[in-house]
Amino acid sequence: MAADDNSDGVRRVTVSMPEETFQALDRLVGTRGFDSRSQAVAEMIHQHAAQHLGKVGIEVMAGTLTLVYDESKSTLLRDLSRIFREHIAEVISSQHVLLEDEHVLEVILMQGPARTLREIANKLVTCKGVKTAQLTLTPHLIPPLHAKRGN
C-alpha cells in the first residue's frame, strides 16, 4: 500500500484487491450512493476504527442505545430508571415511541468511556422485559452542553 501527501489534508492510498472484492465495492458505491470508491472506503475504515475504539474501552465516545421492551412487566420501568440514574453522567437523554402490544422502542443518547457505555447496555438488556438492545458508538463527541463561565 502506497501513500502520498496532499496539501488539502487528504492522503491518497493505493489499494490492491481481488476482482470479486472490487466488484462488491462498486456495487456498494452504487447502492449506497457514495460519490466515489474513495468515499466508500474511507467510511468503512472510519466505522471499523470506531468499532475498535469501542472494544478497547478507554476512549470517551458518544453513542445511542436502542432498546425494545415490554412495558407491561411489573418492575421493568423502575429497573430501567434505576440504571439510568446510576449512570446520570453518561445518559444524556432518551426518546421512546409506543409500539403495538405494550412494547416500547426507546433510544438513549449517551457519552462516556466505551467500556462504561457497554456496561450500561449490558445492565439494561438483562432486565426482565427487554427484548433487544443495540449499542452504536462513534468517536465524534457531543460538545459541552454548558460553557464554562469566567470568574
Order of helices and strands: EEHHEHEEHE
Portion in beta strands: 25-35%
The overall pLDDT average reads 87
Protein structure class: alpha+beta
How many extended strands?
6
Largest sheet: 4 strands, antiparallel
- The CATH architecture designation of the largest domain is 2-Layer Sandwich
CATH topology name of the largest domain, in short, is Alpha-Beta Plaits
Name the helicity range.
25-40%
Structural shape:
extended
As laid out across the biggest beta sheet, the strand order is 4-5-3-6
Domains, number = 2
Q: What count of helical segments does DSSP give?
A: 4
Low-confidence stretches: none
Explain the overall architecture:
By secondary structure, this protein is α+β, with helices and mostly antiparallel strands. It has 2 domains: 15-56; 60-138, ACT-like. Chain A, domain 2 (Alpha-Beta Plaits, 2-Layer Sandwich), CATH 3.30.70. It is 38% helix and 30% strand. It is built from 4 helices and 6 strands. The chain has helices spanning 19-32, 37-56, 76-86, 114-125, and strands spanning 2-4, 12-14, 60-70, 91-98, 103-113, 130-138. It is extended, with a radius of gyration of 20 Å.
List keywords for this structure.
single chain; 151 residues; alpha+beta; Alpha-Beta Plaits; 2 domains; four-stranded antiparallel beta sheet; two-stranded antiparallel ribbon; 4 helices; 6 strands; 38% helix
